[in-house]
């Protein structure tokens, strides 16, 4: 606990040439080369596509994006900074400061979409909607309560991985859905940049969680695992209702729920835990999967037996010297 | 059945998948010299590309395959990854396949699902059986 009468200790200057954990540098390098800004994406090419959505579809899209903005705002202002206090290595703090900044970029990008495609009044209305939306508020509350319960660094990381790797996906579904129908494809490109960042965030915080878990007693490990599954159940309940509210109108609720199950399992894997939802409940429309990773399914693989063609490269005459991939 | 060799970084997803397969497998060391293999093998490797697709194949895997004898024994690759990385999903598999002219046998996300485990087990059994009968034919 912080003793308020003591002056703050002067931190040690960070030396990146002395690492306690190689992952810190690996992730730092990847995050920094992946850096981007919304100006990189030609959002204005979506103006025509936007005008072809119905008013209801437009309202839904703006609302979904304000919901996503809220999560990025929380992660920028509270999530990443609060994890910094628990950092084991100084390099972890630096990585988290990069994560914090990218969350601000993500939050800012949604406003770029809005200013390119939408009317100010519609956007203001949607921000009011999200501030009043009981489900968005409830999930934020659950996460923030963990961030504020400073006693357990491990619980904070669980909450943070669920935000990064689970809570965003009820929202991310919609731009992937539009993209699979050749709508708002530039916006989808921007969202894919965000999804990629969130994947590294969830991975890294989950990785640090696993390192932390190794340091505690068996009893405590069990307690944290029980906590994680209980929190996921609570969040899932909220997400299911939020999903119905958003997607019943488009008839997509069932598919979005499958997408939620699929992502919940991946969030658990980031924490090093086994899946919760059975595979049958995770079968997402293949068009959505293809929209997530465009172009990567062109070659069938051998074991799926789905096609005759599978990647078998032509032998490249490689010298050992140029055998760097 | 012949060999299974894998790399998994400290996040351990690939290791958890291989453990659930329940097959004997050799884990590549994070650092230091690679093992010298003496039998045909299938490689399981995760992907760690940057946004442009560079650096997809982990260093320990590169070191393994830089040894020409090891490379000659490689029969196929199973690639790990995460679809959230978009176009570079499981890219390590493709890069290795191209460089070594072997097939990408399968791709999975993180530590895999139950379906993945079933498919990989069955697929490996079929694959090695097919390899065996091929060798018999060429020897006959
Ligand atoms: C920095 C970083 C970059 C990654 N890049 C990719 C990628 O380009 N494509 C992909 O499919 N997965 C990518 N992944 C996901 C990993 O392949 C995945 O998390 C894998 O399960 C890691 O395996 P391991 O835990 O056995 O080391 C990346 C992960 C990290 C941390
Ligand atoms: Fe974000
Ligand atoms: Fe994030």
Automatic annotation (TrEMBL), chain A:
The name this protein goes by in its record: Ribonucleoside-diphosphate reductase subunit beta
Family: Belongs to the ribonucleoside diphosphate reductase small chain family.
Subunit annotation: Tetramer of two alpha and two beta subunits.
UniProt keywords, alphabetically: Deoxyribonucleotide synthesis, Iron, Metal-binding, Oxidoreductase
GO BP, sorted A to Z: deoxyribonucleotide biosynthetic process
This protein's GO CC annotations: ribonucleoside-diphosphate reductase complex
Cofactor binding remark: Binds 2 iron ions per subunit.
E.C. no: 1.17.4.1
Molecular function terms, GO-annotated: metal ion binding; ribonucleoside-diphosphate reductase activity, thioredoxin disulfide as acceptor
Catalysed reaction equations from the record: a 2'-deoxyribonucleoside 5'-diphosphate + [thioredoxin]-disulfide + H2O = a ribonucleoside 5'-diphosphate + [thioredoxin]-dithiol
Cofactor: Fe cation
Keyword Ribonucleoprotein (UniProt): no
PANTHER family: RIBONUCLEOSIDE-DIPHOSPHATE REDUCTASE SMALL CHAIN (PTHR23409), RIBONUCLEOSIDE-DIPHOSPHATE REDUCTASE SUBUNIT M2 (PTHR23409:SF18)
Record has Metal-binding as a keyword: yes
Enzyme superclass (EC): oxidoreductase
UniProtKB/TrEMBL annotation, chain B:
InterPro entries: Flavoprotein-like_sf, RNR_Ib_NrdI_bac, RNR_NrdI
Gene3D superfamilies noted in UniProt: 3.40.50.360
Family the entry assigns: Belongs to the NrdI family.
Role, per record: Probably involved in ribonucleotide reductase function.
Any Pfam family matching the protein: Flavodoxin_NdrI
Organism field: Tritonibacter scottomollicae
SUPFAM superfamilies the record matches: Flavoproteins (SSF52218)
Name by which UniProt lists this protein: Protein NrdI
Molecular function per GO: FMN binding
NCBIfam families: nrdI
